[in-house]
């Protein structure tokens, strides 16, 4: 069982309604999506509960969602079934897979691979990151593109903010406030970073909480770019800014 399996039923509470509708995703990647041929095959290789994969399928792409967590894949499939009548036939499927195993499942198959939601931060070390990116590389067709986003770990480690309180969410008459409690390693790329996610709920007159610990392995942007090159990618582009919380990287398979 992965750390996300038990969390899969509560995962949506981390996101605002606007994020669940994929508005920020479309704002960030709209131009890129407009440039992709309508018959493109798209991989969402950190699909979680399927939010982005469903959005991509609604645009008419043939979409394959993968995730390491069986619990997340089960939720994604459930969402897919709910919307099946509004999607193109055969345009969306989900399966459990690691990044390293992608070429054995989908060799040279995809035009674009998305690895978003800060998923790359789960790579345990530089070697693991390079192997994971190599798996994504070999799942792409020649000329295919990978799209990655990441938390700016350099900023996180410099500021060392211990508590993050997200906005209140109200769904099905239940209120929830997500909290992040951060535990930092002494240095960037040395050890892991623990984030304790605490979801506080109010349902009618009852107040309760659920707790989920998650481990990340912070890295420098240069490390990610180096691993992309080692995997074989070229044309690496990044919008990294030292003061921004998140950055995005694209690269191509020659």
Automatic annotation (TrEMBL):
Keyword Methyltransferase: yes
Gene3D superfamilies, per database record: Vaccinia Virus protein VP39
Record GO biological process: methylation
Keywords assigned by UniProt, alphabetized: Methyltransferase, S-adenosyl-L-methionine, Transferase
CDD domains associated with the record: AdoMet_MTases (cd02440)
Protein name as catalogued: Methyltransferase domain-containing protein
A Pfam family: Methyltransf_25
Lipid biosynthesis is among the record's keywords: no
Organism expressing this protein natively: Candidatus Kentrum eta
